[in-house]
Design goal:
The structure holds two protein chains of two kinds. Chain A is mainly beta. Chain A contains two helices and ten strands. Chain A has one domain. Chain A is 8% helix and 41% strand. By secondary structure, chain B is α/β, with parallel strands linked by helices. In chain B, the strands form two sheets. Chain B has a nine-stranded mixed sheet with strand order 3-2-4-7-1-8-11-10-9, sandwiched between helices. Chain B has a two-stranded antiparallel ribbon with strand order 5-6. The chains are: A mainly beta, B alpha/beta.
């Protein structure tokens, strides 16, 4: 991938920046400039939360060129909180653990590498929502949120 | 508008043609179609192809095929619409004859896939999807269809084995098609234990990578009898589009462009789904066949698989599909497939389908699906008395 092309998509791949339709309030990802709901311009940047759930998933055993070292890997359609579906790899999870409806969240990872001297493309993948250990000051015990 | 007829058909066997390149395959099919029609002069040539630029580093196929066929000066261009490229080229050829811009038109679908490695072909096919938001995330074509199949099974409660009749039917029909690639029957046991490509899609849900070319010759229907005893009329030709990315669909399990394209075709022809005698559909994967049957109006939503389980899709069923092997077993040389479907439909309508003949077939439908349903092209063909 040409560096300019990788750079051009940075807001989407690093920050999940979509668009807000001022006309009908729809939140769009990927950006598409014209709202598919009401056909009016939708060009207000709108970062999505990165939280959603698995709509469907599969395990890729026969990868395309450039993805051989990651195979087998899981790709999924994820239903984001704000409404859109997004295509992405799942990470930090095995195929036997994934299920339709599983809550997931966005993380930033290496998407693919192009040889020793090529661009290393970073971008979003999704992982199961972590159960966080939160330490609350003045209380000795930790609670799980 | 003028009525348009198909007066000649030709095809190469589908397979791994190590000894032939794009131009040789295209010429072989074109010559066979010209012989069949008894036509020597052409006004225009349209070439359907998807992958030549990526696999062979060769574009400009209109001029290339015309040049190689010795048709210097003829109007010729390539038409591309992913896996629907062949059908898209036919649509253009049809429009030229119907609109009176040309009288004798050849449409050739050609694809050469076996000169590339498996990884390269997988990447090349993924260009039919959204490069930035699907392919860049490791999506393959099989993976996108696997996402549909898993969701379909989840919503309607089917098991993987329930899809077996689609592949069993296709393989059974390919046995008697001398041009088919996989001319052997398969069993339910083989289907159940086939190698996984993208869970839940296995090798026996998916159409094979292969080479091939097919061609048809068109002319105004009122001149057709001069050239062909049994001409076939194009009753409908309809294209519809949908979002390129699967994730941009409001309802991924409903192929909107299939519904639109089929509806427009039925309207043009003035017929209903129950009038269709057989359907050459786009069974690139078993799930694609199910979704096509549903959105085309042959089965209620979620019941495409039931049609297969009940045997309605078999040669003696209510709506035979993949009558010469379909994409699954005849093979799916992607940009040529749309023309193979039409060639096979013409053979059925002429009564030349051999042991696979559908008795009294009068009205046949063909449908090509580009991408995961972004371009859908439906044709309805009728035997002319």
């Amino acid at each position: 991938m040409h560096p300019a092309r990788a750079w051009r998509g940075r807001s989407q791949r690093y920050r999940l920046e979509g668009e807000l339709c001022e006309g009908c309030g729809a939140r769009l990802f990927p950006p598409r400039d014209i709202c598919p709901e009401c056909q009016r311009p939708a060009r207000t940047p709108y970062p999505l939360s990165g939280r959603g759930e698995v709509y469907s998933y599969t395990v890729v055993y026969e990868p395309p060129a450039g993805y051989e070292e990651q195979a087998p890997y899981i790709v999924a359609l994820i239903k984001l909180e704000e409404g859109p579906l997004i295509s992405a790899m799942l990470t930090d999870v095995g195929p036997e653990e994934v299920y339709i409806g599983m809550p997931v969240e966005m993380v930033t990872r290496v998407l693919h590498r192009q040889g020793e001297h090529g661009v290393i493309a970073y971008g979003y993948k999704f992982r199961p929502v972590l159960r966080r250990a939160v330490t609350i000051p003045s209380q000795p015990a930790s609670v799980t949120a | 508008m003028r009525e348009v007829a198909i007066i000649g058909v030709g095809q190469t066997p589908v397979g791994e043609h190590w000894e032939k390149g794009l131009r040789e395959l295209a010429l072989e099919a074109l010559e066979a179609a010209l012989r069949d029609a008894g036509v020597e002069r052409l006004d225009a040539l349209y070439v359907g192809n998807m992958l030549s630029g990526q696999v062979e580093a060769q574009e400009h196929l209109g001029a290339l095929v015309a040049d190689f066929a010795g048709m210097h000066g003829v109007e010729a261009v390539k038409v591309e619409a992913a896996c629907a490229s062949g059908a898209a080229a036919l649509r253009i050829g049809y429009a030229m004859v119907a609109g009176g811009l040309a009288d004798f038109v050849a449409v050739v679908g050609v694809e050469k896939m076996t000169d590339a490695s498996g990884e390269a072909i997988t990447a090349a096919l993924a260009t039919a999807a959204d490069a930035e938001y699907e392919a860049a995330h490791g999506m393959t074509f099989t993976a996108l269809n696997a996402l549909l199949m898993r969701r379909y099974m989840h919503e309607y409660g089917y098991r993987r084995e329930d899809f077996a009749p689609f592949s069993i039917n296709a393989h059974r029909n390919a046995v008697h098609n001398p041009y088919a690639m996989l001319r052997f029957p398969i069993t339910e046991e083989a289907f159940a234990s086939a190698r996984m490509i993208a869970d839940p899609i296995t090798l026996l849900d998916a159409s094979p990578v292969c080479d091939g070319a097919a061609a048809v010759i068109l002319c105004p229907a009122d001149q057709a009898r001069v050239f062909q005893e049994r001409p076939v009329r194009i009753r409908a030709s309809a294209v519809a589009t949908d979002t390129v990315a699967l994730h941009d669909r409001r309802d991924p399990l409903w192929l909107e462009a299939v519904a639109l394209s089929a509806y427009r075709a039925f309207q043009q022809a003035g017929v209903r789904p129950e009038d269709i005698d057989f359907f050459e559909l786009h069974d690139a994967f078993t799930i694609t066949a199910a979704l096509s049957l549903e959105a085309s109006g042959f089965a209620p939503r979620g019941r495409g698989v039931v049609m297969a389980l009940e045997g309605a899709i078999f040669r003696d069923g209510r709506l035979p599909i993949a009558t010469m092997g379909g994409l699954k077993a005849r093979g799916h040389p992607v940009g040529a497939t749309g023309i193979y479907q039409v060639v096979e439909a013409v053979l059925q309508l002429r009564g030349q389908a051999g042991p696979n003949q559908i008795p009294h077939a009068r009205l046949g439908m063909t449908q090509s699906i580009g991408g995961t349903g972004a371009t859908v092209i439906t044709h309805i063909l009728e035997a002319l008395d």
